[in-house]
Structure formats: C-alpha cells, structure tokens
Amino acid sequence: MVHNLESIIRRMPKVELHLHIEGTLEPEMMFAMATRNGVKLPYHSVDEVRAAYQFSDLQSFLDIYYAGAAVLQKEQDFYDLTRAYLQKMQDENVRHVEIFFDPQTHTGRGVEFDVVVNGIHRALEEARREWGISSRLILSFLRHLSAESAMNTLHQALLFKNWITTVGLDSSEDGHPPEKFLEVFNAARKEGFITVAHAGEEGPPDYIWQALNHLQVSRIDHGVRAMEDSALLEHLGKFQIPLTVCPLSNVKLRVFNDLRNHNLGTLLDKGLCVTINSDDPAYFGGYITENFLQTQSALGLNLKQIVRLSQNAVQATFLDPIEKTALLDEVNCFFDPYISGSVH
Ligand code: ADE
Ligand code: ZN
User: Quick check: 313 and 54 in contact, CB under 8 A?
Assistant: First the structure.
C-alpha cells in the first residue's frame, strides 16, 4: 500500500525532547529585541545573520549562539521567545515538549535567574491552558564553565523545583567530560531532579558511559557516537535508554557530512530507543516536522519506522505514567488506520 508519508508526518501528534529555547531565536526576533533593548548586534540585516549561520563544528556554532542570546534581557523577552516557539509547535501538532534553558548564558551577563524562568514558565503554562500542550523544563549546565558555577546555578534552581523537573549538561563537549560534574549531579538527584546529559555528539563513546555511570542520566542527548562501541549499543538497547537525536543539527555541525549518511536508521533498527528532535531550529534550518520530513526522505524511513520513532518519543518523556499512557493512546489511534490498511 502507498502511504503519503509526508502528509502523515505533518499531521501526526508529535513530541519534542531536545530543544534549547535560546536556539529558537529567529533572526527577525533577534533584531526586534536588539532594537527594543538597545543591544548592538554585529549584523546589519536579517539576511546577514542567516548568512553567518555556516558552522564548521559545535564550537563555531556556540560562539554565534551565545552572542545572539545577549538580546534576551527582560522577562517579556523570554516569554515572547517561548510563546513564539509554542505557537509554531501548535501549528505542527506537537502535543508535548521538554525544553532546555541555559541559565548561565543569562546570569553571566547580569540577567537574574528568576527573570529567565518566570518568562519561560508563563508561556509554557499558557500553552498548556490554551492548546493542551504539556511540557517539562530542563535546566542545562554549561559544561565549559566550572563545576562550582554549575553548583551555584543548582542552588538558584531550588526555589523553582515545582517548575524545573530535570537538569542537563550542554555546550562544548570536547575536553569537558561528564565526570567533571559528578558532585553537581549527585546533589541534583538528591534534590529530586531527573538527570540528562549531552554526550556522544562530538565527544567519544566514553562520555556516554560516564553520563550513564557517573551522572546516572535517564536519557542521552544526541548519543550518535554510541555506534563506535558495540558494548554500549547493547547496553542502550537492553535498558532502552532514550537517545534524543537531532538530525539537522548533526549535519549543520558536521557530525555527519550528509543526512543520507546519518546513523539514525541503523540505531533504530538495532532496537535502540531513538527519537527525532530539533536542538536549535532557528540555527539549523528546521523545527521538528522538518527534521522528520528531511530524515524520512534522506534515509528512506518507512511508516513502521516513523511509528516506532513516535512511540519511542512518548516512552522517553518524563510525563507521569497516566499522562504517558494517554499520549501513547493518542499516537497509536492516529497511526491505527494506516497500519491496519483502511486508509490509503
Ligand atoms: N547548546 C545548544 N545546542 C547545543 C548542542 N547541539 N550541543 C551542545 N550544546 C548545545
Ligand atoms: Zn542540544
């Protein structure tokens, strides 16, 4: 039977698990906020900004990304950024999002922690009420900064434990192994936070082992370099530890030279709990639907694989069991007619 996979992908209920809210800052909004906040940008036009988005690796992206985030100053800016992202997700039929924010990117330039969290939370709460989009908020520590700075940030987060469920680890991977943050993650887990970490994006498989064994993470963000370690592949499969893979990001940051060479399909076929996500969509050329569409097309994914990716994403959420079951039912109900063959 012939299915129109593009149409199915556009309409299917979706879940986003790897999204940096600062990475949704579109150049148009960057300019508007720069103007209203009196921030000088090193660009003269939106086109010039987009032209600058040519990256040779993770660090070359991060340099531009942190510079762009300087326009975010007031609670309203964080609200507007998050609201604009969620409006797009409503248009793409995204039902649940788990969003990273990097407080140190902001506190490091004098923007208070509560300014950041209040703005983001208000938008998440509105999206839940207006559109039924559920969410979780993940505080991510910048691994290029010290463990002490991460610990200070954790202490600031304690007042917001009702709003922040999870802590993560991002930024420059090379030279900043997960074990550097052992103490911080131990303290975070003691306070009841779930833990995740970026690992195996550019860094070696050993960083994935460290994230699992030392930081006791529940998910690995990226993790594509697990492919180099067969014992690790077996472990990830056996314990169904989710990988939040971001295909367009991986190509933009040259982890893979071409989407057709991405290992997502292979990891999926090995039985790993692989999911598709968007990372920093304003910088990498596409939100979650675009990541699904381009990956399906480049790798020739079939309907069964799309269904598996969708079910994996629900299983990988940090929703409570009742919410998880309801979302899985919604996903399965959507796909049922296509699988049983009653819709062409
Ligand atoms: N921060 C934002 N995007 C990131 C990525 N892809 N890797 C590490 N840190 C990030
Ligand atoms: Zn990321």
Answer: no
